[in-house]
Write a structure and sequence with these properties.
13 strands; homodimer; 8 helices
């Protein structure tokens, strides 16, 4: 049972409730809250030797443990609000090490005005940090991965292929996401945590649609080792989103005036029977396989 | 830095927000929600070889991972609603093993009408399950550990000292907690996860008060190995709560009619300068040390 199968198993096994607007399957769950807002609820675990090296700076380990969760909230169009933190901490590490983790957690929480409202600590063999996050989104601004439309244009924020460098130190795209949902109607969105190919596959699968993306349009970072890194390495934590042509024009007019946020058009949504296609050099059409980082 | 120091460090390092009614320091955080209700938000991590043996039945491991979180919500007087589950799963374990964990999670969620709204899975050396929970409580029914009053009577639900047997299989006291908060004004409450002595110490410390409890009044389970187990072993997950004498009379009249819930009077709250005292055989007064299960 791989990760996709496991999540599918969890989601098909479990019954929902009326207060659950969206359960398992998107970057965050959507729960009823106030008349105008939804709650967003998500969780992500980082494990030493799996997600980061033993030698990694504990400040950035703490930072990333929160950042990946913030990114999940951003991908739904929302704003992060509160976190709880569970830490499994090896006895052999020093109190100073633990304090540096907390410093990293605290620094990113201050930056994004997030409250740390709970903590649980345990002894464990390897360092583990699990963060759960609560966010909020105005009902009209909620964006799911499952609601792309045929003929939507596909965009990404920033540039891709920096995962190897960013790794622990990335800044989640909350500000960008909030501008996008405020300035235009975003049809679907996901964060690129496991590589463009894999996360595009997830978005298309959830929407029961296909896509064509163009190699020549991919904003490959100047720092990327290779185009392959921009397509499959992951850890970019940029946003992948789709807009109708009309809304795309609206957004581009806005960006023309403000110069923000940085986005690139990379392709288009097509009917499901069109599959997922990568248009490579000289128009060669390749089938996209959902390759990228799978957690087991 | 031990667990108490760590939690203190987290809570003193972190600024709160207006929407946070209670942050770190109680069984769950309290967050603004609807006009009549608060949200409760908590998290607990279980680690193989720390909280359960490698040979433990994965069904009950899944069950307990959720049960400890439900218990945190019960201790605030609330009702559990939604969870997200992060699992670190060793590659060498079988898919059947993972399915049995999910079966345990699903069974307790069905029993308590909880929705599983998110999941994250990762490879890891030892099995880790971290559950975060959202609950709700009517504003008037919220109970904190920090609001005991002088002269309150101290009660526990059920009987103590069964931790060795219950361990993974306990049923969190949601039903009992809900009856308590509906039928009388509960001044303070905490769940007994780490032993009566330690959790009573936490309640008294949070309330800046002292307590006297009486050995002869402790409802020691017939199955307990020793009185010491009832005082210090932990894993009972019963509720420890305090009531004014007036409210205690009201509750006892209710229980007289219904026979439910099972509770025992074990002592009284005194001024802080009175300290924490255990009245043992023949009236010998002993000082209670905060001994019990500390996680590191």
């Amino acid at each position: 049972m791989n990760e996709l199968e496991f999540i599918k198993y969890m989601s098909t096994t479990i019954k929902g409730k009326k207060s659950v607007v969206e359960g398992i399957g998107d970057d965050a769950a959507v729960i009823k809250h106030t008349p105008h807002k939804y709650l967003l609820f998500a969780s992500d675990m980082l494990i030493e030797k799996v997600h980061f090296l033993k030698s990694a700076d504990p400040f950035w380990v703490g930072w990333k443990a929160v950042a990946v969760n913030i990114s999940d909230i951003a991908a739904m169009g929302g704003a992060p609000k509160h976190i709880v933190v569970s830490i499994g901490f090896p006895n052999k590490k020093s109190p100073a090490y633990l304090k540096r983790i907390v410093k990293g957690i605290k620094t990113i929480c201050d930056k994004f005005e997030i409250s740390i409202v709970g903590g649980d600590t345990n002894a464990s063999q390897n360092l583990i940090i699990d963060v759960s996050i609560l966010g909020e989104v105005e009902k009209r601004n909620l964006v799911k991965r499952s609601t792309a439309k045929i003929n939507d244009l596909i965009f990404v924020t920033g540039s891709l292929g920096e995962g190897r460098f960013k790794h622990l130190k990335f800044t989640p795209r909350v500000k960008e996401a909030r501008v996008l949902v405020e300035k235009c109607k975003v049809n679907s969105m996901i964060d690129i945590s496991d590589g463009l190919f894999l996360d595009l596959t997830r978005l298309c699968k959830a929407s029961s649609l296909g896509a064509r993306i163009y190699k020549s349009l991919i904003p490959v970072s100047l720092r990327a080792h290779s185009v392959k890194d921009a397509l499959e390495y992951g850890e970019d934590f940029e946003l992948l989103f789709t807009l109708s042509i009309k809304e795309a024009k609206r957004l581009i007019r806005y960006i023309g005036k403000t110069g923000y946020p940085p986005i690139s058009l990379i392709g288009e949504i097509v009917p499901e029977r069109g599959g997922l296609k990568f248009i490579a050099d000289e128009g060669k059409v390749e089938r996209i396989k959902p390759s990228g980082y799978l957690h087991f």
